[in-house]
Amino acid sequence: MSPSVPKSNISSIKYADALRGVRHVFVRDLMISGFIGVYDHEKINKQQMCVNIDLCVREEDVPLNDKYQNVVCYEKVVTGIKNIIELGHVELVETLAEKIANLNMLDKRIVSVRVRIEKLEAIENTTSVGVEIERHRV
Fold first, then answer.
1. Are the C-beta atoms of residues 14 and 65 closer than 8 Å to each other?
2. pLDDT at 14
3. In this structure, are residues 79 and 85 in contact, taking their beta carbons and an 8 Å threshold?
4. Domains of the chain by range and CATH?
């Protein structure tokens, strides 16, 4: 009997869809530390978090022309997440997820966003705890 290999707890998201003219831009397992939580010790000690984000991006009618400025750039997405976390303490993981989602929805090309934040050290004997949200443009 072979050892069991744990499966990812992140389901496959079908954000890319040629018929709808959308592509999938994503960031997987961004490991970052920040001040998050409601307890006093969480306000003075940074915690490790894992952030995943999926963006459903409307494809433009103009060609990409292999130009950086013509796409939703995952490096800018990561920089935005880091900037939000560097602003300081946030009590709720839900609040952090909303801030990240709202920042990305500022780009009108983004049709929807899914944000998953996991606190990796919050509860003993767990791999992680956290929240996942999804927001759509109306």
1. no
2. 61
3. no
4. 22-136 (3.30.1130.10)
Cβ(27)–Cβ(52) below 8 Å = yes
For the chain, the distance separating the N- and C-terminal CA atoms, rounded to the nearest angstrom, is 51
Two tokens, residue 124: 């003993």
Nearest alpha carbon to residue 116 among 54, 46, 72, 33: 54
Write out pLDDT tens, residues 115-133.
Answer: 999 999 999 999 999 999 9
* C-alpha dihedral, 96 to 35 to 30 to 128, nearest 10°: -90
- What is the pLDDT confidence band of residue 59, given thresholds at 50, 70 and 90? confident
Query: What size, in residues, is the chain?
Result: 138
Q: Which residue has the tokens 């952090």?
A: 96
In the numeric block, the tokens 């049709």 are attached to 111
Contact 54, 24 (CB under 8 A): yes
Distance between CA 17 and CA 96 in Å, rounded? 28
Kindly state the average pLDDT of the residues 30-51: 96
